[in-house]
Amino acid sequence: MRFVLAALALFFAAPAFAGADDPWTIDPAKSRIEFNASQVGKLITGRVRTWTGTILLNPANLAAAKIDIRMDMKSASANSKDIDDLMLGKDFLDAANIPQASFTSDSVASKGGERYEARGKLTLRGVTKDVALPFTLQIREEGAAATASALGKIDIRRLTYGVGRNEWAGTSHVADEVTIEISVAASRPR
Fold this sequence. Notes:
By secondary structure, the protein is mainly beta. It has 2 helices and 11 strands. A hairpin with a 2-residue loop joins β2 (32-39) and β3 (42-48). The chain is elongated.
């Protein structure tokens, strides 16, 4: 559910002198896609443990920015067998039949300072919707490498993506709103 937002955190910017074709290398040990939702008034948190991304992003040439994040929804976990079984099952993510979620950017815009917004398509449970992911970005040039860290957060409505069917199609037990938080660390040679 919040897995989608995780994908949006991958919007790292490159140093101004880097070429638009120079990709960032994501550090999976320092990067996370997390989600949270309310179930019967209790906050449930989890993360997508396996995901990959291609990020081409140069703040000096945002028109050429490309972000493509692929999430293995079978790796989504709230660290509770009961919740995970329900979340990954047919009524929610149906991860056995639809194992991949994705975010693909259409555009990235500067919002001033370290603030950016990526607009694109989020696909979850086979349903694709337009989303806007606000994020902050910090870039450091250190020795032979440039490093970037990005933080993003987005709220989605799970029912819009068909996440919650049959007895779970309402919001009396599980809230419709899911928050996805993304933290990405990346580097590339200077």
